[in-house]
Every structure is written in structure tokens, then in C-alpha cells.
Amino acid sequence: MTVLLQVSDAHFGTERPEVVAALLGLAQSQQPDVVVLSGDITQRARRSQFAAARAFVDRLPPTRLLAIAGNHDIPLFNALARIFAPYANYARAFGPDLEPVLELGDMLVIGVNTTRPRRHKDGEISELQVQRVGARLLSAKDHQLRIVVVHQPVLAIQEGDTRNLIHGRERAIDAWVDSGVDIVMGGHIHLPYVRPLHALGAHRPRTAWTVQAGTAVSSRVRDGLPNSVNVIRCVSGTGPRGCIVERWDFASGSNCFEQHASQSLQFAS
């Protein structure tokens, strides 16, 4: 069984030390095969904040890492850096590849850079990205769980969040579902939920899901929700492909992450 730990919107620079320690404890107990950082790793894209994020990653148990940038990982107040070197500090900490891909035995994870320096915080998926990801999905093995990681959401469950949806999402989701995606994973709005992507309105021949994460370790929590992360476990066997999505919340009483919810998802072959 392959285990994935999704850590989103950590916003290093606003991190809570006790939550960071608890998340390291959760990682130690769960021993994930891959850790996904789904954007907004830092609060203001400063070198010191990326260094703190990198130090956190280096304290995790041995694992594979897939990281993508969020809008907060591009300088906001340094106009020259935003124009000429928007990902320089990100690259120092996590490398120059802004759209990494990880392939494990029963899981394919594809990162998509949805940030755009010309935009303030909005995300975008280009036609080239739609085609690139679709081609990679089509090359997946039949038994693999196929995950695409973006930062901004592709589906909102609250009216106020519709302004945060990624530009170009309809074309992307249609193409990626046809190409075999199972999960589109994101963050940005600090609200965790799991929903089927047919909720976008279009009729699709197969079911795919969006898995949204809360804020992992930041004090910038939403509406009193606790810090949270997601754990995804591949379900192996002779039956239908599937996974279990678990939401783990930080409990201030115990100073640790505790499982809050679990949902089983099944996918067509």
C-alpha cells in the first residue's frame, strides 16, 4: 500500500511551532511513501521562510517529495523579483522543476504550476498544460492511482470561494477525466473537503474527485477550523482501483494530529 501525505498552505513565516512538531510526529507514525506540498509553502516567498520550510522537509522520515508553488511563493512586494525572478527563492529550496512528476508502483502524481506572476493570487491552467498532463495520464499503468496536484481549487462548495477557482479549469477537467485522472488535489482556500468532479455540471463517463486540504501548520486558519492535512492510502488488490482519503486535524488538547474523517473512493479501470 502506497501512502501519500498532503501538506498544503503551510505558510512558513506564520507557522505554529507546536503544530509543526505534531505534523512531524504524524509523518513519523504514518511513514508516507510520498509527501506532497500543494502550494503556499511560505507566507511571503522570503528566503528565510523557504529555508524554514526546507528544514521542516529535511526532518521528515525518508520519503519522496513533490512540491509545487502557490501564489504566496511568488514575491508580492518586491516588484523586480516578481517580474524577473519570481521563483528564485522557491528554486533554492525545492529545485528548479516547477511541475514535477512522481511515479511509484501503484501511484502516479503529476504537479501543475497554476501560479502566474502577472496575477495577484488567481491561478490558471494553460492549453499546453492541459495537453501535457493529459498525455502523461494516458501513459499511466492500468493499476495506478492517478493524481494531479494544483494549488487553487477546481471546484468550490461555498459561494464565496468561486472567485478563487482556477481559470481554465473546465477545459482541463474535461480533458483530464477523459485521460484517466482519479484525483485533482489542491489547497489555497484553507477548507478541506472531498467531492466528485461531476459536481462541476458536465456529464462525464467516469467519476473523478477533488481532494482539498486545509492549512497544515499556519496560524492563518479559516473560520475557526483546525490545522489539517490529508493522508491518502492506495487500495491494492484484485478488485476495483481505489483509495482511502483521511483528514487529520490538529487537536490542541493532545498537541497532536488526530484522524477526523475517512472516505473510500473507487475508480474505473
Mean pLDDT: 94
Q: Name the helix and strand elements from N-terminus to C-terminus, one letter apiece.
A: EHEHEHHEEHEHEEEEEE
User: Which oligomeric state applies?
Assistant: single chain
Task: List low-pLDDT spans.
Answer: none
Largest sheet: 6 strands, mixed
| CA-based shape | globular
Query: Helical amount among residues, as a percent range?
Result: 10-25%
Task: Explain how this protein is built.
The protein is of the alpha/beta class and 269 residues long. Helix content is 23%, strand content 27%. The chain has six helices and twelve strands. The strands form two sheets. Strands 3-2-1-10-11-12 form a six-stranded mixed β-sheet. α2 runs parallel beside α4 and α5 packs parallel to α6. The longest helix is centred in the first third of the chain and has 14 residues. The radius of gyration is 17 Å and the shape is globular. The two termini are 18 Å apart.
Which terms would index this structure?
globular; single chain; alpha/beta; 269 residues; 6 helices; six-stranded mixed sheet
Question: How are the secondary structure elements laid out?
Answer:
Elements: E1 3-7, H1 17-30, E2 34-38, H2 47-58, E3 64-68, H3 79-84, H4 88-94, E4 101-104, E5 107-111, H5 127-138, E6 145-149, H6 169-179, E7 183-186, E8 193-196, E9 209-212, E10 228-235, E11 241-251, E12 256-267
Helix pairs in contact: 2-4, 5-6
